[in-house]
Structure formats: C-alpha cells, structure tokens
Predict the structure.
Amino acid sequence: MALLPRRQRRDVAQELRALLTDESADRDVEAVLASFGHPAEVAARYGPPVTLIDPVDTRRFLSLGIGGALLIHFGAFLGEIIKPVRDFQGAADAAWPVVFAWLGLLFVGFALRAWHRRRRPVRWSPGRARNEHVNRAGRIAALVFYAAGTAVLLDPPAAVRTVGLPQPAIDALTYHERFLDVRGPVMFALLLTLLVGEAVAIWRPWPVTQLVHGAVTCAVLTWLIGSGPIFVTQAADQTFKEITALIILVSLVDLAVRLRRTHAAHALRH
C-alpha cells in the first residue's frame, strides 16, 4: 500500500485483504504471497508507475546519451590532435564532466517531456509523407558553393591576393611543404569526389553512397589535421585546424541524423 497514491490505498487494501484471505483459506499463506508477486509488481497492476522517462522515449534517450558521450570524447581528442603538444589522457579526463552534464540535461529534458505529456495529452493525427523530390535548385547552389571553396583551397594565396589583403596574409596562407607531399593531393582528390557526388545528386541522390562518402571524409579530415602542419604560419595553421575540427563534429551529427532517416525509410519500404 505504501507504493500506491494515498487516494487508492483504502480501496485497494480492502480488495487485497479479501482476495488474499480467500486464496489462503486452504493453502499455505507464504505460498500464496510468493505466488501473488512482489509488492512493487502488485502495485504496478493498480495503475501506471511514476516514471521520469517514458518507455517510449527510452531508446531515443539511450541513443542521444551514448552518441553524445562518444561525440564529446571525439571532440576532446580532436582538440588535442590540432595542438602541437598532445595529452589525450588529460582530454579524456576533462571530457567526463561534460558527458555527465550532457546526460543530466538529457534526463531533465526527457523528464519534463514525460510530465508535459501526462499533464496535457496531445491528440495525434498522421502528417504528410516526407517529400522525396530532389531540390535541384538547392543542390546546384551547394555545388556552386563547394566549387568556390575548392577553388580557394587549391591556391589560398591567390584567393587572398584577389580580395586585396596585404602580403603578410598571403604569406600566412601558404601551404607547408610537408602538407603538399601527400596530404595535399589526398585532400584535393577528396574535394573532387565531393563535387562529382553533388553533381550526380542533382538528378539522382544515392543516400547510402553519400553516407559512406561522408564517413570517409570525416576520417580523412581527421588524418589531415592530425598528421602535421598545413600552413607555414602557426596562427593560420591552428585556426584552419580548429575550423576543420568543428566541421568534422557537425558532419558527424549530420551523418547520424541521415543514417537514422535512411534506416527508417528502408524499414518502411520493406
């Protein structure tokens, strides 16, 4: 009875007292109680238990919690990769408080969602199916943007010179010789495949291929910024690596969302 709301205790107690008395009339009392179930299980039969996270949200909570923890640690390691002196153990130790803060925010958010759902139930109605039409104008705009960015990355000093920046800025954005040996050609090849993929997607997108390409891109970019200097000056090199690290983190989140949508669409078709 202690596990039930006060307003239910008297009526449920009378019902259980009568039920257990009848069942134990010709049986051992301990056997009757053992077969009846644990008090918590019995209490759950008389109404939904108080839950902070609804069962329907458990899978999403676990996905966001585990995914966020992995992403936070990856971001911490990525921050160490772009530093001249690396301390991965220190980065992992510093990431754990952020992980616990993330889990706490998730817990509070889902608990508030469950409370609001019980207080104000929403009448659900099916929405429109997702439009699978290719937005060609958006694809073309993205292709132009990627092409312009690739042109800038092919020769940053020339791009800086075009906009009229002073000579120190031109010198700062000169690629390091070590970068041009191997990593530079790999990066330019990756950018070329990105342009080709965006051009093909204007007419026919390939979700699985794009997901694989996105994962490979994140891996290659991580290798690029972690294998030595990219620009000759430390300030430009550090800034470029920080921006690239942010792009990698955002790309990983986008990959996770697209993977979930692709999996859901595949499950619907089959």
